[in-house]
C-alpha cells in the first residue's frame, strides 16, 4: 500500500468504538485516501491476511480515486465488482472484515459502510484422490476450499434442482458448511433432519468434516461410521442424483454423504465404471475379505485353544509342527502379532512417506521373520495375521477399515473365553448392534434387514444399469424413477437384420 | 382397557411374520426330535411330521381368527371374553409360560454344549452373557427382536444343505414299505411331533405389531409349511441314514449326522454346528422374553425395559436349579406338556369362546 498510515492523527480520528477490539492484531489495517475529483477523504479498513491485494489494487482503488465519489452509494456504481454492499449495520463490521471484506468509510458519512468482497483464495491445485484412488474413471479429488469443492459438484450436476444451503457453524472457527440436495428428488424429511441437526451443533472450532460426522451421527457411541465421507466429486454427484444429501465443510477435502447403509462402505465408486459382472465379483471379494479379516485370527485362537479336533489330521500335523517350539498360548501369540501389525500401521501413518516405506519393509519382513525364528510365533499365524491385515485394507472407505481392524480384538477376547461359542456370541452382539444402528433414522443394515429384495440390486452385487431404473427404496425419494425404462431404446445391431 | 395403538414406526412388514414364526419353531428340537417320533411311527415317521404340520395349519387359522375378531393380541381377546379382571388374570399365566419356555431352551442348549463341547461349561456365566445380549436386543425394540429372528434363521441356513452329506450314505430301503405302521402309531407320532412344532402361536402376542395383518396371513401359513417341509426332509434323511436300533439310542440324531461331514480343512463339523446353533436359539429366547415383558407391560403397566431385566434376573436365578440331566429332562417334559395344553386345548377353547362372545355382543 502506497500511503500506508501516512497520517497518524487522521487515523485516530477515524476510530470508532468498534475498532478497539481489532486494533491489537497486527494484520488489522486502516488506510486513508483522497478522491481526486471531489477531494473527499475516505478510509479503507481490512485484515491484510485475508484480503487479496491484487483485487484491491486493480479493481477497486483506481476507480475510487479517479471516479466521482460523492456519497457512499456511489461506491456501488464505481467499482466493477459483483460483491459490493452498503449498510449502516455496525454488527456486520466484525463478521465482514473477518470474512475478507474491505470496508470503505467516507469522512462525511461515518455511520454508513461499504463492503467490497476481495477474499484471498488460497487453495492447492486439484490432485488425484489418494484414499479412494481408482484406476479407471475421473482423477479429480476435493480440496480444502469450499468454493472449489462446490464448483466440482455443480459442474457435474448443472441443473436448477441442485440446491445448496449454507450455514456457519462453530463459535470460533465460523466454518462455512454447505448442505446439498436435489429438489424434487431427495426426501424432505431427510433434508429437514440434516438441517435441524446441523443447526443444533454447538462447538467452538470445526476444522474438518470429521467433526460434523461425530456431532450429527445418530449414535455417537458406535465404532461404525454412520456418514460416508468421500473425496471424489464423481461419487458425491452420483449419490446426490440417487437422492442422498451431501455436506461440504470448508477446509475439509472430505464431503459427507448421508443417509447411508453398511454395504455402501464396501462399495468402491470404481464399481460403477466396470462391467457389472466384474464389479459384482470384486464386491463379493471385498465382503469376503472383511469377514475373513474379522474372523480368521479369532478362529485360529478358538481352534488351537479348544477345538483342535476340528482340524483334519494332515492339517493338524502342519499346525503342530509350526507351534511345537512356541512357549506362548495361542491368544498371546495372536495378540502379539496383531498388535505388531497395528504398530506398523500406526507408525507408517505417522511417518513421512519415504521413511514409512522403510518401516513397512523393516517391520514386515525383519520383525516377522525374526519372531518366527526366535520361536515367539508360529509362521502359520504370521501368514494368517498378515492376510487378515491385508484383507482389512481392501475396504474402500478408510474409516470402515479402521472399524474392522478394531472389531478383531473383542472377537479375539471372546474366542479365548468360549472358543467357537464365543465367536458366535460376539457375532450376535455385532449383528444386534448393526440392527439397532440407524443413519438419519434410516436402518443401517438395509437391504439386509429390513430385507428389501429390490435394493439388493446394488449391494453385494451390482446389476447392470438397465435394472437400476429405480432409486433405492430406503431413501424414500420423491421421484422413484431414475429414468424411463420404456424410453431407453434397445440396442440395435448394425449388421443384424431382424 | 382399550389397547394403546402402536405407532407405525414400531410395526413390521407382513412378510416378516414368516421369519418370526419359523425362527420361533426351529430351535433346540431340531437337534434330536427324530428319536422320539420314530419310537412311535418307525419308518413312517416322516408321514407323522407331515400330518402334524398340516393339522397345525388349522390351529394357526384359529389364531388369526381370534386376533381378527378382537383386533388385538391375546390380552385383548381375554378381556373381550372374560372381562377386565379375569382377562388379565388369564393373561398373566403366559408371563410364566414364556419365562419357563426361555429357561427350557437356554438350559437344554447348555446341556448340548456340556455334552458335546465343554463338559465343565459354567451355566451361570454363560447364561449371564446370554441374558445381557437378550436385554440389549429387547432394548432395541420389537424391530430389533424381529431382526434377530430374521438373521437367526437366514445366517444358519447354510447348515441345512450340510445334511446332504448324510444323504449320500443313506439307504432308501429304510423308508420302505410305506404305510407299514398303523394309523394309530402315525397319529401318535404326529402328537409327539406337534411339540417340536410349537412356537407359531407367538402370533397371538405380536399381532398388533404387524403393519397390514391381513396380508401377513399367507406368510404365516407359508412359514409353517416351510418348517413342516424342513422337518420332513431332515426326518427322511435321518431314517435313511440310521438303522432303527441305532436311532433309538441317538439322543441328538442331527448332531450325529454332522459327524460324518468332512472338508479338507474341517473334521468334526458338529462343533461348528453347535456353535452356530446359539444363533438359532437366540430368537427363541428373545421372543419369549419379549412376550413375557410385553405382557407385564400390558397387564401391570410395568415398563418393558424394567420387565426384561426382572425376567432376565429370574432366569439367571432359576437356571441354577437344574444342574443335571435329570432335572433338565423334567423341565423339558413340563414345558412340552404346557405347550401342548396351550396349543391344542386352550387355543381352540379360546377360539370358541371368542366366537360365542362375538355372537352375544352382536345381538
UniProtKB/TrEMBL annotation, chain A:
| Entry membrane topology | Multi-pass membrane protein
Location relative to the cell: Cell membrane; Membrane
Alphabetical keyword list: Membrane, Transmembrane, Transmembrane helix
Q: Does the keyword Membrane apply?
A: yes
Pfam families, alphabetically? GerA
Q: Which residues cross the membrane?
A: 284-306, 380-398, 410-435
UniProt keyword Oxidoreductase present: no
Q: What is its main location?
A: membrane
Q: Which branch of life, at top level?
A: Bacteria
Q: Which InterPro entries match?
A: Spore_Ger, UPF0353/GerABKA_families
Q: Which family does it belong to?
A: Belongs to the GerABKA family.
Q: What is this protein called?
A: Spore germination protein
From TrEMBL, chain B:
Family matches, as NCBIfam families: 2A0309
This protein's membrane topology, according to the annotation, is: Multi-pass membrane protein
Q: Which family does it belong to?
A: Belongs to the amino acid-polyamine-organocation (APC) superfamily. Spore germination protein (SGP) (TC 2.A.3.9) family.
This chain's protein is named Spore germination protein (Amino acid permease)
PANTHER family documented for this protein: SPORE GERMINATION PROTEIN A2
Pfam families, A to Z: Spore_permease (PF03845)
- Originating species: Cytobacillus eiseniae
Location of this chain's protein in the cell: Membrane
- Which branch of life, at top level? Bacteria
Q: Which InterPro entries match?
A: Spore_GerAB
Amino acid at each position: 500500500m502506497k500511503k500506508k498510515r501516512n497520517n497518524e492523527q487522521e487515523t485516530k480520528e477515524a476510530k470508532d468504538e468498534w475498532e478497539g477490539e481489532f486494533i491489537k492484531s497486527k494484520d488489522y489495517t486502516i488506510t486513508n485516501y483522497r478522491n481526486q475529483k471531489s477531494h473527499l477523504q475516505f478510509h479503507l479498513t481490512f485484515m491484510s491476511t485475508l484480503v487479496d491485494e491484487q483485487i484491491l489494487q486493480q479493481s477497486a482503488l483506481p476507480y475510487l480515486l479517479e471516479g466521482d465519489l460523492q456519497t457512499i452509494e456511489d461506491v456501488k456504481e464505481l467499482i466493477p465488482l459483483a460483491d459490493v454492499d452498503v449498510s449502516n449495520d455496525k454488527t456486520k463490521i466484525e463478521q465482514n472484515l473477518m470474512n475478507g471484506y474491505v470496508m470503505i468509510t467516507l469522512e462525511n458519512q461515518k455511520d454508513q459502510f461499504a463492503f467490497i468482497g476481495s477474499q484471498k483464495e488460497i487453495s492447492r491445485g486439484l490432485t488425484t484422490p489418494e484414499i479412494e484412488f481408482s484406476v479407471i474413471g475421473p482423477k479429480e479429488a476435493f480440496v480444502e476450499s469450499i468454493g472449489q469443492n462446490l464448483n466440482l459438484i455443480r459442474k457435474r450436476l448443472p441443473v436448477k434442482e441442485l440446491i445448496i444451503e449454507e450455514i456457519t457453524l462453530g463459535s470460533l472457527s465460523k466454518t462455512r458448511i454447505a448442505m446439498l440436495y436435489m429438489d424434487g428428488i431427495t426426501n424432505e424429511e431427510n433434508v429437514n433432519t440434516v438441517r435441524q441437526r446441523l443447526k443444533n451443533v454447538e462447538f467452538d472450532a470445526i476444522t474438518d468434516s470429521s467433526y460434523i460426522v461425530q456431532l450429527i451421527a445418530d449414535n455417537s457411541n458406535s465404532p461404525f461410521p454412520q456418514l460416508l465421507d468421500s473425496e471424489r466429486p464423481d461419487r458425491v454427484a452420483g449419490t446426490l442424483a440417487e437422492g442422498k444429501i451431501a455436506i461440504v465443510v470448508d477446509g475439509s477435502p472430505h464431503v459427507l454423504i448421508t443417509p447411508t447403509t453398511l454395504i455402501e462402505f464396501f462399495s468402491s465408486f470404481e464399481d460403477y465404471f466396470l462391467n457389472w459382472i466384474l464389479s459384482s465379483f470384486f464386491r463379493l471379494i471385498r465382503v469376503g475379505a472383511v469377514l475373513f479379516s474379522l474372523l480368521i485370527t479369532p478362529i485360529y485362537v478358538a481352534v488351537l485353544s479348544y477345538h483342535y479336533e476340528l482340524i483334519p489330521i494332515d492339517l493338524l500335523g502342519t499346525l503342530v509342527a509350526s507351534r511345537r517350539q512356541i512357549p506362548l498360548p495361542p491368544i498371546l501369540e495372536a495378540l502379539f502379532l496383531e498388535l505388531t501389525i497395528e504398530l506398523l500401521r500406526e507408525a507408517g501413518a505417522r511417518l513421512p512417506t519415504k521413511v514409512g516405506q522403510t518401516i513397512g519393509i523393516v517391520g514386515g519382513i525383519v520383525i516377522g521373520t525374526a519372531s518366527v525364528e526366535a520361536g515367539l510365533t508360529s509362521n502359520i499365524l504370521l501368514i494368517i495375521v498378515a492376510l487378515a491385515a491385508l484383507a482389512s485394507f481392501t475396504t474402500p472407505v478408510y474409516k470402515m477399515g479402521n472399524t474392522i481392524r478394531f472389531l478383531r480384538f473383542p472377537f479375539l477376547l471372546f474366542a479365548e473365553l468360549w472358543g467357537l461359542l464365543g465367536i458366535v456370541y460376539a457375532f450376535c452382539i455385532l449383528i444386534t448392534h448393526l440392527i439397532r444402528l440407524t443413519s438419519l433414522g434410516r436402518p443401517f443394515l438395509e437391504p439386509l434387514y429390513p430385507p428389501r429384495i429390490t435394493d439388493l440390486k446394488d449391494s453385494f452385487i451390482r446389476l447392470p444399469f438397465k435394472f437400476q431404473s429405480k432409486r433405492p427404496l430406503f431413501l424414500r425419494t420423491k421421484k422413484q424413477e431414475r429414468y424411463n425404462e420404456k424410453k431407453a431404446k434397445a440396442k440395435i445391431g448394425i449388421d443384424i437384420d431382424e | 382397557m382399550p389397547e394403546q395403538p402402536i405407532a407405525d414406526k414400531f410395526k413390521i412388514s407382513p412378510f416378516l411374520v414368516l421369519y418370526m414364526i419359523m425362527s420361533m419353531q426351529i430351535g433346540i428340537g431340531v437337534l434330536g426330535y427324530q428319536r422320539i417320533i420314530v419310537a412311535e411311527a418307525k419308518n413312517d415317521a416322516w408321514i407323522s411330521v407331515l400330518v402334524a404340520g398340516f393339522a397345525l395349519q388349522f390351529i394357526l387359522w384359529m389364531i388369526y381368527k381370534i386376533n381378527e375378531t378382537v383386533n388385538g393380541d391375546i390380552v385383548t381377546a381375554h378381556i373381550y371374553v372374560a372381562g377386565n379382571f379375569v382377562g388379565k388374570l388369564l393373561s398373566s399365566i403366559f408371563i410364566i409360560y414364556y419365562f419357563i419356555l426361555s429357561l427350557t431352551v437356554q438350559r437344554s442348549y447348555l446341556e448340548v454344549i456340556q455334552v458335546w463341547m465343554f463338559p465343565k461349561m459354567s451355566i451361570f456365566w454363560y447364561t449371564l452373557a446370554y441374558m445381557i445380549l437378550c436385554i440389549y436386543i429387547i432394548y432395541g425394540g420389537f424391530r430389533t427382536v424381529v431382526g434377530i429372528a430374521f438373521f437367526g434363521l437366514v445366517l444358519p441356513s447354510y447348515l441345512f444343505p450340510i445334511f446332504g452329506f448324510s444323504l449320500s450314505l443313506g439307504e432308501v430301503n429304510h423308508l420302505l414299505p410305506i404305510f407299514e405302521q398303523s394309523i394309530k402309531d402315525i397319529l401318535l407320532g404326529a402328537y409327539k411331533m406337534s411339540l417340536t412344532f410349537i412356537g407359531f402361536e407367538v402370533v397371538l402376542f405380536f399381532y398388533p405389531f404387524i403393519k397390514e395383518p391381513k396380508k401377513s396371513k399367507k406368510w404365516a401359513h407359508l412359514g409353517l409349511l416351510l418348517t413342516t417341509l424342513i422337518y420332513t426332509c431332515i426326518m427322511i434323511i435321518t431314517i435313511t441314514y440310521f438303522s432303527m436300533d441305532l436311532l433309538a439310542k441317538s439322543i441328538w440324531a442331527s448332531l450325529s449326522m454332522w459327524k460324518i461331514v468332512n472338508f479338507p480343512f474341517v473334521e468334526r463339523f458338529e462343533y461348528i454346528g453347535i456353535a452356530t446353533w446359539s444363533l438359532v436359539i437366540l430368537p427363541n429366547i428373545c421372543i419369549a422374553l419379549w412376550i413375557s415383558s410385553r405382557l407385564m407391560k400390558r397387564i401391570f403397566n410395568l415398563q418393558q425395559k424394567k420387565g426384561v431385566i426382572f425376567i432376565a434376573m429370574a432366569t439367571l436365578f432359576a437356571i441354577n436349579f437344574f444342574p443335571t440331566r435329570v432335572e433338565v429332562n423334567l423341565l423339558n417334559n413340563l414345558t412340552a406338556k404346557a405347550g401342548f395344553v396351550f396349543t391344542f386345548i386352550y387355543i381352540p377353547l379360546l377360539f370358541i369362546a371368542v366366537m360365542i362372545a362375538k355372537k352375544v355382543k352382536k345381538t
